[in-house]
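User: Second chain of the day. Same drill as before.
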Amino acid sequence: MPFVGLVLLRLQSHYLSLSPHWGLPVRYQVNEDDASNAGNELSRRKQQGLRQLKGQNLLGGVVTLKILILGAAGQIARMLRNELINKTDHSIVLYARNGHKRLSINDENREVILDGDFKDKDKLIDAMKDVDLVYINDMGDDKSTKTIIDTMHDAGVRRVIAASVLGIYDEVPGAFGKWNKSMIGGSPRMQSQIDSAYLLENCNLDYTLLRLTWLYNENGNTKYMITQKGEPFIGAQVTRQAVTQIIMDIIEEKSDKYLQTSLGVSEPDTDWAKPSFY
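Assistant: Same format as last time:
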């Protein structure tokens, strides 16, 4: 059977392999009736812009991604890993310093642990092989952020979700803004967060930047609200469980709504002068 565009049909096993621009091949389960229209549909979507293919179920099957979690030993990263294993069929690369000592495999068919530093480009290149999406758990070192971005370009990986902090645009008003500045505003790490955000927003990747307010843990509390870049940041606290939830929602979103966005993330009804735990 001939190739049609970027589509390779394997009707005997009922799979279609696609290679959209933002990552390497993802797999779709299809039936024979669907397959005959696959080439025409892919061509039409390509004309509309290949962004339409991101994470989409083109022919009614299940899309599986390969996701790289950088900083996989962090609290939110661990929660995200568990949600991905329990609620999706995605495969996961867990990348962390001394990862084999700090992490263990839950599903050997879907997970791999790699030891590495954010500044080690050779190890990052290995970690990004066949990856569709990168999650960066910490942007507190702008040199590391630059290395990650450069490596993504070299590896041909376009989709990235990155965790940052509130206040990088001086967007937090009122009493809470003053309190937040007094706590983190003048620190070298805050400047690195600002510089990292600038690099990400000007890197020609399909990014989602998350500006997180003050974090705490509460099992079962996954409530979050979003403020857009240019809007005043509202909300003094949010759970790590809620941050995990928004990351999951972004990963599973089929549209482009989260691409090239910087989102403030907080808990509804927490417009206070400081977090409740201070």
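Residues 1-60 have pLDDT under 50 and may be disordered.

User: Great, on to the next one.
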